[in-house]
Amino acid sequence: MKKILQSKWTVAVLVAALVCAVAGTGLLNRADKWLQDGLFQNPQPTTNKVRIVGIDEKSLTEIGAYQTWDRNVVARALDVLASDPENMPAVVAIDTLYASETDPEADAHLAEAASKLPCVITATIATFGSVGFFDEDGQYYKDYYEILAYEEPISALKDVTIQGHINAMYDLDGILRHAILYVEPNGEKVYSMAYQTAAAYAQANGITLGTPETDERGHFYVSYAAKPGDFADPVSLVDLIEGRIPADYFAGRIVLIGPYAVGLQDAYYTSIDRSAQMYGVEYQANVIDMLLRGDFKKEVSDALQLVILFLICFGAYLVYEKLKLVPATIVLAALVAAAGGATILLYNAGHVTHPLWIPVGAIAGYAVSVLLKYLQSARERQRVTRTFERYVAPEIVKEILKEGTDALELGGKLCDIAVLFVDVRGFTTMSERLDPEKVVYILNKYLDMTSRCIAENRGTLDKFVGDATMAFWGAPLPIEDPVYLAVKTAMDIVHGAKEVSDELKEEIGEEFKCGVGVHFGPAVVGNMGAARRMDYTAIGDTVNTSARLEANAPGDCVYISRTVADALGDRITYTSLGDTVKLKGKASGFEVLKLESVEGVQV
Questions:
Q1: N or C terminus of the chain with fewer C-beta within 10 Å?
Q2: Residue 128 in 3-state DSSP?
Q3: Whose CA is closest to 282, among 272, 292, 295, 293?
């Protein structure tokens, strides 16, 4: 009995530790963030203090294309807002950067118009990037949030306005959940446009404005009040300029002026609605409204939540073990419901927690208690699945499991495989130009596309190396028609890259192309590395040749070897480049071919 009791306690500790490890390493982050969004981000009444003036399609139609505007346009809007002393707005914030001088008369007009209003907030922007440095002990570190450049309004406008930065950073899943309270160019804090606007309004109205707690980079959680398009009926800039809006509509209010058209590319996916983009001025309005409501949320530290998670999982497992199936199921349901209710109550009290952690922990403990007697027999199958599911398509994993572990020659074997390499052209230059969050978003979108194409064609995904992907066909198990599947994947990736590029161009104004190389031949495939760290991979001249072909392939182009072409015959069309393309490490005379089409792939 003592041994049995000790065993239960041991399993309880292991279950709790495993759940905490999964949560702590971020494996639940994406689903957890989505659940957070669904539970926490719901429309609510606003303070009704903000009025949005949009540079919308109507304005672009009546005034002309935005790039043809001079600064007299916005200056005229400010003139109208200042024309009635009895109905002037309390604060005007312009969500557009005026960092360089253009037409002197237009610049002067804008500064003069701004000076007539009680308070105008103008935009600044910091450019972030990564910078490496050595500390006092000689250890090398990288700061991925170093400010590389900082832009401010022209001096005439800066002198008569208050400045606030308009930087915004996505979370790693491409959703805007946080605002940046301040940036620190030259060691001095510059607060955000939203905070400066709320602070100016509060000061003008005798309101005490609180300050949200931030993390070490000045980020704080945003509690949105309105979905895209729901904040308030936006006023068209041209209607304001032409006097079509009553002056008292803006009296004593906050007026936000900024892009409100898709073509101006100032929109974000936010946590209150991940399916529709929110214009930048709507985002600013939401943050300002949150600051005025004092609806500050503090994200509870992961360390504290992990301790609580461990204790709950540990105790829950011991309870499950004492109960039969039906009572244990009732306890599980009650625990999940209580965790959900507590999460919402804590959020309403100002504390943001991980809503998925405790339910996942409770379910994990329940599953272990029910399935414990079956785990021993299933352990071998799970080991194989864990080993290969990261590399190969699901159907291949099923074949491996059917064959059993005796069919696997782990440790390295020589076999003929088709090898594919793909890489983004110009990615390094793009990475230097964009914020880290955008780089990660673009890279993840691209890698998701390549891995999906490989999986759909039953390939083995070997590895990601930066923006490069390697895959092969013919291992760990022989596969029918590996060369065809490899070139089909290559064409699928080229087509997929064009689709992703079109999406990125529409979303964030970026586009990219990728080059692909495919070769077929013998290679050594298996688990390689050290006892403490192994990778399932392929090595040999076939792999090197495929990499060389990819390295020389232009964007939107697939280079193949003569071996590949001969294996496929008339199932493909190609153009021979002869030996005009010199591959590093290859003797002269190696023929390179440009793949034109593949049977069964729609061009």
A1: N
A2: strand
A3: 272
SS3 160: coil
Residue 284 contacts residue 180 (beta carbons within 8 Å): no
Percent of the chain with pLDDT over 70: 91
Q: Could you tell me the two tokens for 97? A: 């950067």
Q: What is the DSSP letter of 411?
A: T
> In terms of C-beta density within 10 A (0-12 exposed, 13-18 middle, 19 or more buried), how is residue 410 classed?
middle
Write the CA distances from 465 to 174, 424, 479, 519, integer angstroms: 21, 11, 25, 19
Q: CA-CA distances (angstroms) from residue 418 to 518, 542, 596?
A: 7, 8, 18
**Confidence label for 531 from pLDDT (cuts 50, 70 and 90):** low
Q: In 272-426, where does DSSP find H-type helix? A: 280-293, 302-322, 325-348, 357-388, 394-403
457 and 422 in contact (C-beta within 8 Å)? no
C-alpha 295/C-alpha 311 separation (Å) is 31
Q: How far apart are CA 366 and CA 55, in angstroms?
A: 55
Q: Work out whether the CA dihedral 568, 573, 578, 579 comes out positive or negative.
A: negative
| Whole-number pLDDT of residue 389 | 54
**Beta pairing partners, 151:** 125
The count of C-alpha atoms lying within 13 angstroms of the C-alpha of 398, restricted to the half-sphere facing its C-beta, is 4
Query: b/e string for 22-39 if b means 16 or more Cβ within 10 A?
Result: ebeeeebeeebbbbbbee
Q: Which of 35, 37, 102 is closest to 75 using CA atoms? A: 102
Beta-ladder partners of 576: 593
Tokens of 309: 């998670």
Q: Give the amino acid at 343.
A: T
Beta strands 513-530 and 557-561 are parallel
Say which residue the tokens 């309101």 belong to.
Answer: 207
Q: Which of 426, 430, 445 is nearest to 174 (CA)?
A: 445
Torsion angles phi and psi, residue 568, rounded to 5 = -100, -20
Report cis status (omega within 30 of 0) of the bond before 43: no
Asked whether the beta carbons of 255 and 277 are under 8 A apart, the reply is no
Residue 179 near residue 27 (C-beta atoms within 8 A): no
Q: What is the pTM of this model?
A: 0.60
* CA separation, residue 395 to residues 295, 399, 432, 458, 484 (Å): 50, 6, 39, 7, 18
Cα–Cα distance, 90 to 55 (Å, whole number): 21
Confidence grade of residue 87 (pLDDT, cut at 50, 70, 90): very high
Asked if 133 and 140 count as a contact pair (C-beta separation under 8 A), the reply is yes
